[in-house]
Amino acid sequence: MRQFVVCGHDAPTTPDFSLDDLAGGAGRLDLLCRCVNAGLFLSHGIREDSRVHLVLADEYTVRFEGATARGLHPDERTTAARVRDALDAREDAIGHMPAEVSPGVELYRMGLSEILGALDGTLIHLHEDGDPVASVEPPEGAVFVLSDHSDFTAGEADLLAERADERVRLGPEAIHADHAIAVANNYLDTDGYERY
Predict the structure, then answer these.
(1) Tens digit of each residue's pLDDT (9 = 90 or more) over 4-49
(2) Residue 64 sits in the same domain as residue 38
(3) Rounded Cα distance, 98 and 20, in Å
(4) Which long-range contacts (CB under 8 A, 24 or more apart) does 82-85 make?
(5) Do 15 and 2 form a contact (C-beta atoms < 8 A)?
(6) CB distance 168 to 129 below 8 Å
(7) What SUPFAM superfamilies does this protein's entry cite (predicted)?
(8) Domain of 53, in residue numbers
(9) Domain final residue pick, 85, 113, 141
(10) Which of 3, 7, 26, 79 is geometrically suited to a Cys-Cys bond with 51, CB 3.0 to 4.6 A?
């Protein structure tokens, strides 16, 4: 299982947003939706061994599960609609007890600290100042943690400094969060194959 935890700092925490303005009126939900798509989708299929956790304003976490997702399509609008449905069910989420939104989509009333505490695996903090990815052996059960278009807050950085098993950079330049997920997936996909 590979997992991606994405901190959405300006993400909505209520379902009161338009699917027609994801980049402006929904706090850059467009980027978070692209992260879900990069984490779950292949060219003609879905990664059944992948989960994406969107941490919305450190208040809620929407989990997308590749193995059980149904009716999810690789476009921002469909993914955003699932996030909106999840937030519409926010009263049903009680801490570690999720609100089930649709097959493969759940909402937790948990922020970054709580969701990291609930996950098993090797915690990898993706950061431009980390060790080069080529120098790190691909772990079993990787949990990649990254931020949206904003830097991690001081509290998030302290939390990751305390809990992360590795701090890794994916290349010489900072890249968009959804691109970072695609590169991380490729990194795990090529484990055991000759690298180019």
Answers:
(1) 999 999 999 999 998 988 888 788 899 999 999 999 999 989 999 9
(2) yes
(3) 27
(4) 83/12, 83/29, 83/32, 83/33, 83/54, 83/56, 84/15, 84/17, 84/19, 85/15
(5) no
(6) no
(7) alpha/beta knot
(8) 2-113
(9) 113
(10) 3
